[in-house]
Amino acid sequence: MLQCAPNKALRQRRGLVDMKKSAMHLMVIGSVCAFLSVAAGAFGAHALKSVLDPGRLAVYETAAKYQMYHALALVVVGWQLHQTPDARLIRVGWLFCLGIVLFSGSLYVVAALGVPWAGALTPLGGLAFLSGWALLAWTEWRRLKED
User: Fold this and answer.
1) Rounded to an integer, what distance in angstroms lies between the CA atom of residue 8 and that of residue 2?
2) pTM over 0.70
3) Residue range 111-132: mean pLDDT, rounded
4) What is the model's pLDDT at position 63?
5) Rounded distance, CA 141 to CA 75, Å?
6) pLDDT in tens, 54-98
7) Three-state secondary structure along the chain?
8) pLDDT above 90 for 5
């Protein structure tokens, strides 16, 4: 019985360290995604403007915008996780990552490469974004009730 307490404390400490690591991972991923969003936006504005028709260029710009919004959200969620460890915030971050890949990624493919079937993935990315925002709201609401 006495050995359970140190093991439990060690597991809790490791869990806290893992959450801090996850927080840093989310902030790094968010920063890289923001960097790539700026690069994609510049590429679209300069290199693709003369190549794509206005409709496809608008789709490309939508991809870059939503990538940036959610890249910044990843940085904020990572910071929040670092301040207040909560496993639900890790899930929020991964939902935003999934949304960036599916939503923005599919729109980039549709706009830049002209692959229309890739658009079938876009709603799944949107669902991941919405799920992330809903889970974030629910997590914060639950934490308000706990305090």
Assistant:
1) 11
2) yes
3) 96
4) 98
5) 20
6) 999 999 999 999 999 999 999 999 999 999 989 999 999 999 999
7) CCCHHHHHHHHHHHHHHHHHHHHHHHHHHHHHHHHHHHHHHHHHHHHHCCCCCHHHHHHHHHHHHHHHHHHHHHHHHHHHHHHCCCHHHHHHHHHHHHHHHHHHHHHHHHHHHCCHHHHHHHHHHHHHHHHHHHHHHHHHHHHHHHC
8) no
Lookup: tokens for 107: 């729109």
Number of Cβ within 10 Å of residue 8's Cβ equals 10
Cα 46-50-54 angle, rounded to 5 deg: 100
Cβ 88 vs Cβ 135: under 8 Å: yes
- Block residue for tokens 């996850």: 22
CB 30 within 8 A of CB 73: yes
Residue 71's closest CA among 127, 32, 24? 32
